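Q: Please design a sequence for this.
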């Protein structure tokens, strides 16, 4: 299969080279200056067709004002040069007779003074550079009819979109997308890119957004967030627009999805909805967790809980490897949402959104695990089924009010209600390496209940008359409550010298309530000489109450089990005063800080008449340096310290037997872990050649790391307890290089990465050093020809090795590989073809596990109605009928493979209708493809 992919790659690559070489092509160059003979950097040079003014090619001038556009095939073309504040320059040029290059020499641009209304064609500048903002004109980058913003972004030079829809711009991850400068459904970029029409976008602006605190104080703290702002066309601000899709397939599979938007200068209204039974999650992973009822509630009721053994670096869950882009199991998904943004005046704005999510999820899973212990290895098998149902309501509300020029107020509120029902049944067995059974178990769990959560923040800010002198206060309040009931039925059989059978029939109820409140006060003042002082004080208190009652069933009677029950009250109090000193010197800024964190924990275990009391004090230094070599090249160094205090669940010596063969017990003697983190980032983006380089290196060092120690008794029952161990260390790095090959209409992206960790854990009270090496990377090739052909080839490979001190013969080695081919074709004006082939391969040298999954999706579309407002599509997903999902992961003393059920082949016929797809008649004057006279200057 890998050979087939390589052949396809070479065939298409060779065809591209042949097509590029079959005609003699020529180059155009020149140098741009202003009226003072100073070089014009980042001006846009565009080549237009003399027949119909369509876009042929474009480039950006470098720091010396020079530009060069290569591989021109046309006999003649129109040159257009645009620059902010300058009159647009036009020139008609022809292919040179005795040379393969034409030098226009020095072109002196004029400042805008004349009325340019005599032009009947608008400036077509695909890219405009405005200081730290790159602006793409969307009409210059053609997409298929009914394409969403994600498809538009894939065609922009310097922007990358992976299979999951994650976005990188200039090598950096984009975490926020704005629509006309306003947040769209919060901070999840995918909600905008997957639901808004590419046709509605006039400009895509990429900028480095400063932090909220920096924007308020005017003091540059060096923190930047790569942000995309989507500027809508005026035509799409005059009514509703959106699209609606309905599809039906074999085995009663269906899909309904749509969005409706109405945007104006002062108001944004958006409505989203989906309903399907084909495992599609149209929203973000955060919404998926809300479908599940949130992470915390999953273990709150004492129902089916798998206690995951912590890995290195403070209790992580190892290094799981995702098996692909599909969501495992069989799911029915329903989700509806509304986003309302309203500017009541220039001083008062409202940002709000509401979501309702409902999910029914059936999972069938087989797990095979090889466990390594100093006393001997054994295997673990589990066959389980789960049937989970949950619904979630979520509300977000932000009010910004500017009281006057010196004072402002901001209120942020979010609330959610989750209802969930979960059923699980599993059969497990532990065996020695000879295949002899050590113990077996059957377990049934049922959990149902509700969770309520609300948080609010009020931010008051005052700016003094003296520049840089500010004070702000942030008040917070939150409440989290849950009420769950659970049933546990388990039969465990133990073999060996003293065989026995253990039967557990239990009911439990758990009520949790947590209230937190706090305040953060920040004062900034200039010290002179571009130096600034910030004084910060943070106070926070968390109060929690837990009432967990477990009853053993004895016939028809319920007997209270005090050993497994728990009632406690806990109060966490934080005090954190600190100071930061910053220095801004044009190209670089430096921020150094020091804080003292004092934490007090007072807890009361009411059923055991015990108290838990701890006090922790730690000094927390920090240092950040940002060196901006230019608008597109910078270096960032960051050093931070933090304290990971044990929570009340880790400290209380109470047994959790949700899985009777894997018991969890807290440790009241735990100390906080102290973390040091160093990070270096380098980012460079060449606007003229669209070459980006991003490099990241990091190192983590943890003192008194908290890990989950394991001990196993003679019956192979595992007990897990959090403990402090010696220092753990983790370091690694990644590099991303992206560059185009314009002559081949291609772009390459290469991203190797490496991670190494060295840490300690306790297994049967023996401290063991564990070293984990992870080496991998990704490679992607994209070929684009106009709006007709879009080809992507990619691979992602990971190699992980784990070495143990107590027994080097148990060292682990496994590989995970992912190869992908994406192809999109538009032909005969009204037809579109799309295909995706994904090949997943999992291999373990430790267990001889070897699994491969080929996935193939194909679709054919026919566009109908005026302006392609309708689309009829027939699609085949998972045509090779692979109805399983596979994953492979390793942890501190085991390697595990799991196989999960999944949807098989789906053939579906769907129809999409696009609302408000008409073209603005005014746009035809300046859209590529519109003909019209233009004033031409001959050279």
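A: Design:
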């Amino acid at each position: 299969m890998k050979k087939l992919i390589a052949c396809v790659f070479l065939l298409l690559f060779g065809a591209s080279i042949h097509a590029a070489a079959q005609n003699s092509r020529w180059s155009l160059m020149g140098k741009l200056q202003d009226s003072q003979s100073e070089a014009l950097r980042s001006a846009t040079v565009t080549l237009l067709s003399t027949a119909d003014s369509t876009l042929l090619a474009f480039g950006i001038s470098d720091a010396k004002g020079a530009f060069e556009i290569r591989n021109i095939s046309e006999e003649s073309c129109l040159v257009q040069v645009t620059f902010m504040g300058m009159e647009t320059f036009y020139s008609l040029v022809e292919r040179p007779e005795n040379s393969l290059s034409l030098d226009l020499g020095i072109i002196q641009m004029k400042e805008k003074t004349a009325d340019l209304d005599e032009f009947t064609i608008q400036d077509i500048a695909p890219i405009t550079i405005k200081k730290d903002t790159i602006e793409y004109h969307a009409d210059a980058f053609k997409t298929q009819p009914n394409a969403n913003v994600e498809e538009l972004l894939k065609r922009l030079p310097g922007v990358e979109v992976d299979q999951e829809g994650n976005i990188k711009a200039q090598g950096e991850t984009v975490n926020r997308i704005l629509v006309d400068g306003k947040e769209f459904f919060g901070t999840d970029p995918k909600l905008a890119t997957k639901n808004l029409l590419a046709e509605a976008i006039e400009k895509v602006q990429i900028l480095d957004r400063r932090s909220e605190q920096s924007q308020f104080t005017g003091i540059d703290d060096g923190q930047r967030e790569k942000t995309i702002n989507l500027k809508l066309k005026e035509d799409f601000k005059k009514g509703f627009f959106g699209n609606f899709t309905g599809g039906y397939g074999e085995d009663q599979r269906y899909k309904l999805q749509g969005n409706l938007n109405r945007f104006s200068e002062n108001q944004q209204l958006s409505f989203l909805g989906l309903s399907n039974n084909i495992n599609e999650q149209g929203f973000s992973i955060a919404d998926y967790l809300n479908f599940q009822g949130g992470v915390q509630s999953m273990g709150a009721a004492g129902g089916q809980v798998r206690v995951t053994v912590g890995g290195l670096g403070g209790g992580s869950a190892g290094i799981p490897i995702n098996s692909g882009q599909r969501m495992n199991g069989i799911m029915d998904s329903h989700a509806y949402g509304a986003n309302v943004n309203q500017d009541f005046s220039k001083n008062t704005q409202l940002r709000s959104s509401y979501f309702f999510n409902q999910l029914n999820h059936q999972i069938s899973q087989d797990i095979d695990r090889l466990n390594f212990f100093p006393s001997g290895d054994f295997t673990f098998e589990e066959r389980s089924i789960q049937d989970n149902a949950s619904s979630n309501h979520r509300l977000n509300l932000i009010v910004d009010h500017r009281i006057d020029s010196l004072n402002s107020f901001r209120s942020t509120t979010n609330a959610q209600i989750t209802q969930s029902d979960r059923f699980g049944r599993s059969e497990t067995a532990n065996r020695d390496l000879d295949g002899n059974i050590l113990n077996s178990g059957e377990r049934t769990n049922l959990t149902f209940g509700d969770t309520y959560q609300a948080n609010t923040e009020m931010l008051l800010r005052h700016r003094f008359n003296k520049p840089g002198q500010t004070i702000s206060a942030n008040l917070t309040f939150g409440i989290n409550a849950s009420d769950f009931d659970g049933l546990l039925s388990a039969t465990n059989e133990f073999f060996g010298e003293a065989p026995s059978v253990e039967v557990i029939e239990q009911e439990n109820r758990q009520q949790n309530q947590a209230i937190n409140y706090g305040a953060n006060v920040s004062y900034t003042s200039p010290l002179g000489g571009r130096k600034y002082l910030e004084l910060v004080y943070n106070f926070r208190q968390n109060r929690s109450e837990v009432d967990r009652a477990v009853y053993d069933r004895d016939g028809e009677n319920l007997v209270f089990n005090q050993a497994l029950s728990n009632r406690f009250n806990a109060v966490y109090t934080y005090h954190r005063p600190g100071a930061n000193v910053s220095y801004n010197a044009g190209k670089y800024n430096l921020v150094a800080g020091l804080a003292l964190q004092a934490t007090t924990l007072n807890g009361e275990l009411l059923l055991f008449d015990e108290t838990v009391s701890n006090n922790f004090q730690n000094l927390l230094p920090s240092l950040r340096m940002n060196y901006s070599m230019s608008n597109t090249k910078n270096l960032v160094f960051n050093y931070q310290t933090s304290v990971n205090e044990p929570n009340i669940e880790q400290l209380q010596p109470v047994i959790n037997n949700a899985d009777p063969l894997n018991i969890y017990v807290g440790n009241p003697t735990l100390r906080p872990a102290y973390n040091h983190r160093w990070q270096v980032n380098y980012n460079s983006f060449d606007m003229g050649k669209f070459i980006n380089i991003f490099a990241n290196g990091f190192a983590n060092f943890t003192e008194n790391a908290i890990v989950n120690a394991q001990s196993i008794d003679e019956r192979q029952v595992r007990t897990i307890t959090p403990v402090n161990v010696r220092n753990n260390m983790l370091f690694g790095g990644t590099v991303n290089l992206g560059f185009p090959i314009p002559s081949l209409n291609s772009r390459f992206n290469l991203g190797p990465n490496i991670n190494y960790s060295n840490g300690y854990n306790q297994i049967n009270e023996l401290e063991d050093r564990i070293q984990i090496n992870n080496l991998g990377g990704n490679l992607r090739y994209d070929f684009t020809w106009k709006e007709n052909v879009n080809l992507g080839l990619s691979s992602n490979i990971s190699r992980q090795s784990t070495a143990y001190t107590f027994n080097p013969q148990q060292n682990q080695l496994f590989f995970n590989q992912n190869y992908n081919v994406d192809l999109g074709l538009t032909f005969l004006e009204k037809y579109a073809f799309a295909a995706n082939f994904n090949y997943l391969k999992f291999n373990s040298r430790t267990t001889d596990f070897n699994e491969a999954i080929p996935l193939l999706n194909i679709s054919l579309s026919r566009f109908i109605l005026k302006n392609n407002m309708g689309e009829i599509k027939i699609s085949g997903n998972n045509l090779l009928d692979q109805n399983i999902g596979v994953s492979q992961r390793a942890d501190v003393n085991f390697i595990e493979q799991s196989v999960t059920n999944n949807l098989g082949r789906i053939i579906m016929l769907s129809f999409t209708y696009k609302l408000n797809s008409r073209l603005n008649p005014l746009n035809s004057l300046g859209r590529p493809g519109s003909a019209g006279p233009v004033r031409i200057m001959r050279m």
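Q: Thanks. Anything notable?
A: The two ends are 55 Å apart (CA to CA). Residues 45 and 81 are 5 Å apart (CA to CA).
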